[in-house]
TrEMBL record:
Residues 244-305 form the Peptidase S9 prolyl oligopeptidase catalytic domain. The keyword Signal applies. It comes from Penicillium cosmopolitanum. This is Peptidase S9 prolyl oligopeptidase catalytic domain-containing protein. GO terms for biological process: antibiotic biosynthetic process; monocarboxylic acid biosynthetic process; proteolysis. Residues 1-19 form the signal peptide. Pfam families: Peptidase_S9 (PF00326). InterPro entries: AB_hydrolase_fold, FrsA_esterase, Peptidase_S9_cat.
């Protein structure tokens, strides 16, 4: 999602500050005095645009959450999750499927966000318990759609996983119409999101345009962490290829119009996959980033990164843990989340694995399809990286700056989902019209 940046004062590690603080002061109305809480509250509020939350419910929780207090955050979202879940389960879903569906979608979101700040203690049993409840409510809601999705667990393999095998949880949402082949969009999240979030964020927008959607999670992402205990792996093509294999088995997928969308850190993972998976016909990086490691490194005090470079791993770890213990909410969260999502308790192990994800210009040039690269005007997660990617990819790249004055300048255009969909999906339509294959979208309902 957003990444840590430490203030450098002399050579001493001082209380960390980070770019997102500035974003939050400039961008959207603040729902908490704690800038990190304000940002994550924005992510929840934004789900309202796609039926994953309700504005009044989120604003009420926001008014009760004590800035900086992780337990308060958990308590208020559990209160909301339990309350809406109770409503959902009291509804006779065969008589009132729409009411039950809407409520389960929202309780799922509130359960999902409740343990967001608990990852500092990886053995906190609430993480898995509430996470599983969130997915269960999402599945109940989705089963009540007029065309329920197919829940999948696709077999995958990677040399970076012990035993070499894992599986990719995914959900295929079929376009609402017809039996013919239609464009299909694969959507994946980033450092801390879920496939349930992205259904509300952009999945429904794709479905509204008459195309198929498949959401997924890979290693490092919630269901895979919870059920398989596998952290992020750099060979992301080994996550995507099994999805494309699956699409090839279906009769309703136009294989000449398959796109991969990556949200947040997914904006690095998606192009990474496309360097080796050449069956993709478009890639969208929301927003573009190629080097999470380089960004961290530039923002961190040399006194700290030097320790790693000199092999003083214990001291490096101590530095991180002291920041986690005393830092601002964002740094506490970011360190906890980094370790959690890499399935480690060692900062130096995490740091040592990060460079493997970096995309250099040679790798970017090896992507064979058109690439959309987004950037939010007020998103400072990876400054300069969207531009670098666009330049390295060259003619096949389309760069788009989402503007702050119309409310789309946030990281991943949070809260401006309709602008995000309009720009990205219209781009896909244009891109695919130019594919030199017969066009047959006559039965697509827009
Ligand atoms: C937020 O900060 C302002 C100014 O410091 C203060 O007046 C207000 O009470 C704070 N609100 C909360 C919810 O802490
Ligand atoms: C729910 O509604 C269906 C259809 O009207 C009915 O058959 C069923 O008995 C109801 N279930 C409950 C628990 O009331
Ligand atoms: C972490 O969570 C576990 C399980 O809930 C608990 O037993 C343990 O005391 C917690 N550790 C810390 C440091 O809070
Ligand atoms: C993830 O961490 C847990 C706890 O340390 C460990 O049991 C598990 O084997 C790790 N998973 C992988 C894929 O290394
Ligand atoms: C880019 O990365 C690849 C893969 O790690 C490596 O083989 C290549 O030498 C790098 N190219 C440049 C220009 O750094
Ligand atoms: C946010 O965007 C506005 C322009 O709309 C700019 O003036 C401001 O400096 C930006 N802030 C950040 C933190 O990027
Ligand atoms: C487009 O698809 C429809 C429905 O399958 C079919 O009837 C029609 O002949 C196709 N048109 C073209 C130009 O291929």
């Amino acid at each position: 999602m957003r990444f840590l940046a430490f203030a450098l004062l002399g050579c001493q590690l001082v209380l960390p500050t980070f770019a997102q603080d500035d974003n939050n002061k400039n961008a959207i109305y603040q729902l908490s005095n704690d800038t990190e809480f304000a940002f994550v509250l924005e992510t929840v509020l934004a789900l309202s645009n796609g039926g994953g939350a309700s504005t009044g419910e989120v604003l009420r929780a926001a008014s009760q959450i004590v800035p900086g207090d992780f337990e308060s955050w958990y308590k208020e979202f559990m209160y909301l999750g339990d309350g809406i879940h109770a409503k959902a389960s009291s509804i006779n879903a065969s008589r009132f499927p729409v009411s039950a569906r809407e409520a389960y979608f929202r309780s799922s979101s509130y359960y999902r966000v409740a343990p967001f700040f608990l990852h500092g203690n990886q053995s906190d049993s609430r993480i898995n318990r509430v996470g599983a409840r969130s997915v269960s409510d999402f599945k109940k809601a989705a089963a009540l759609l007029s065309l329920p999705p197919i829940n999948l667990n696709l077999p995958a393999s990677s040399p970076n996983v012990p035993g070499g095998k894992f599986s990719v949880p995914a959900r295929f949402f079929k376009a609402q119409h017809g039996k013919t082949k239609v464009p299909t969009v694969i959507i994946g999240t980033g450092y801390d999101g879920s496939q349930e979030d992205i259904y509300h964020e952009i999945g429904i927008e794709v479905l509204a345009r008459g195309w198929n959607v498949i959401t997924y999670e890979g290693p490092g992402q919630p269901t895979v962490l919870r059920e398989q205990k596998i952290g992020f792996i750099p060979d992301w093509w080994n996550v995507i290829s099994p999805i494309v294999d699956y699409l090839e088995t279906r009769g309703d997928v136009d294989l000449d119009r398959v796109a991969l969308v990556g949200i947040s850190f997914g904006g690095q993972l998606a192009p990474l996959a496309a360097t080796r998976e050449h069956r993709l016909k478009a890639v969208l990086a929301i927003d573009g980033m190629n080097d999470l490691y380089g960004h961290f490194k530039a923002e961190m005090p040399e006194s700290l990164t030097d320790l790693y470079d000199k092999g003083q791993y214990e001291k490096f770890d101590e530095g991180f843990f002291s920041v986690e213990a005393s830092g601002a909410t964002y740094s506490r969260w970011a360190i906890a989340q980094s370790l959690f999502s890499f399935n480690t308790t060692s900062p130096s192990e995490w740091w040592g694995r990060l460079p493997d994800f970096t995309l250099n210009s040679t790798m970017l040039k090896s992507i064979s399809c058109p690439v959309f690269i987004g950037e939010g005007e007020n998103d400072s997660s990876a400054p300069g990286q969207p531009e670098f990617m666009a330049k390295a990819i060259g003619k096949k790249a389309t760069y788009n700056l989402f503007k702050n004055d119309l409310g789309a300048g946030e990281h991943c255009q949070l809260g401006a989902e309709f602008q995000l969909a309009q720009v990205t999906l219209d781009w896909l339509g244009d891109t695919w019209d130019h594919v030199s294959l017969p066009r047959n979208l006559t039965n697509v309902v827009y």
